[in-house]
Each structure stands twice: as C-alpha cells, then as structure tokens.
Amino acid sequence: MNVGFNTDVRVNGRSFHVQTEDRGPHHGKIDTAVYVGGRVVHKHSTSYTEFDAGIEPSEEARRVRVEEQHRHIIEALRSGSLQIANLEPPKAAPLPPSPPAPKPGVVIQIVNATSWVAAGQCDLQLQVNRRDNSNAPVPAAKLTVHFDGISDSPHLAADSDPQGHARIQFPMPHGAAGGATLVVQATSEAGEGEIRFNLRARKKTPAGTV
Q1: What is the rounded radius of gyration, in angstroms, for the C-alpha atoms of the chain?
Q2: What is the DSSP secondary structure assignment for residue 102, as one 8-state letter?
Q3: I need a labelling partner for 158 at 20 to 30 A (CA). Which of 64, 77, 132, 206 fits?
Q4: What is the DSSP secondary structure assignment for residue 178, as one 8-state letter?
Q5: What pLDDT was estimated at residue 66?
C-alpha cells in the first residue's frame, strides 16, 4: 500500500502545498512536490536504494521515511533554505483608493460694497477667488443671487470671467431695502462659497428736525 502526506504551509504571506508519497516497490521512489497555486515549484525524490542494507524496506519503514522526507521539506521551506525556482513574488493586496483632496472653497467679494445700490437699481460687481494661500481668481464660477426675507425675491445667475469677476444688474425688489438679506452663492471646480449682506432700513428723519 502506498503511503502519502499532504500539508498546506504558509510562509511570508504565501501559501504552499507540500505533497509527499511513496511510489511503491515497483517504482522504488519517494517523491515530494511543492505547489503554489496548482503549479509545481519544487521536486525532491529519494530512491529505495538509499535505505540501509540496500534491501526492499517494509511498509512501516517506508512510512517512516515518507514522513521524515515530508517533514524535512516543510522545515526547509519555512526556514528559507529550500531552493525554489521561478517563484513570482506574492501579489500585494491592492491599496484602497485615496480619498479625493478636499476642495479649498471660494471667497466672494462685493467689489463695490458701498455703491452697488443707487436709485433703486442694483449693480453687483463680484470677485471670486480661491480660499487658499494662492488666492487665485476662479474662472467659470456659477454665481447666484437672491434675497432672504421677502416673498418676491428674484433669482439671478452669472458666470465669472477668466479673472474671477462677474457683474449682475437688476432692479431692487420691493421691500428688500426694509431689512432683507442679500445672498450670493458660488459653485466652481475649487469648491463653494457664500456671502450674506444684511440690508437695513434707513431711519426716517422726523419732520421739523433741523
């Protein structure tokens, strides 16, 4: 009866399968094969003639020799002394994709903050820049304008030019000057930004006041 041993061994992150079998008296050999992924990467054979006295060993003697050879190959594999040819390095697990870098966002400035309303007309001149150390102008930013606090607020839009500048002209909506909030928002490849400008009603001068 043929005798055999099979063992899976993991060394330095790689899985090996070690198989040792007695080929029987007819062949007179004990063969060990080391597999990686179903491919033979090492072979070792021992002839029966290497047994003591040069006579055919008993089944028990063959079993002992098979086990010894199997254990020897495993120990050599674990210690790194086993010479294995054409063994590719183990494939590293793919790294997870890096999260996208956060966008810096943008800063919106009303260039003519003290004069954008005159005689009931609004002339917003806006500048959009990156919110980082470069402070670079942001072209093609999508700008929107509306008023919080009134029911008839217009919703206006414009794109910034290559210098990050945009101009939006419109009549002041009814009731906005009485305490509404001007809201300017921007969306761009650099991120988003918003400013809010509170409009305060002017106090009326009492009659008869000099």
Answers
A1: 42
A2: P
A3: 132
A4: G
A5: 92
Q: How confident is the model at residue 139 (pLDDT cuts 50, 70, 90)?
A: very high
Write the CA distances from 106 to 83, 134, 168, integer angstroms. Answer: 61, 11, 18
In words, the CATH class of domain 106-198 is mainly beta
User: Per the structure block, which two tokens stand in for 30?
Assistant: 């004990």
Taking the C-alpha atoms of residue 15 and residue 19, their distance in angstroms, rounded to an integer, is: 13
pLDDT at res. 71? 95
Q: What is the pLDDT of residues 15-40, one digit of tens each?
A: 999 999 998 777 788 999 999 988 89
Structural tokens at position 25: 């008296």
Between the two ends of the chain, the Cα-to-Cα distance in Å is: 126
CB contact at 8 A, 169 and 122: yes
Q: Which own/partner pairs from 25-30 qualify as long-range (CB within 8 Å, at least 24 positions apart)?
A: 25/56, 30/62, 30/65, 30/66, 30/69
Domain range annotation of the chain: 4-79, 106-198
The answer to whether the CB of 164 falls within 8 A of the CB of 143 is: no
Residue 85 — pLDDT band, cuts 50, 70, 90?
A: low
Per-residue pLDDT of 165-202, as tens digits, reads 999 999 999 888 778 999 999 999 999 999 999 987 55
Q: Which amino acid is at 168?
A: I
For residue 204, list its beta bridge partners.
none
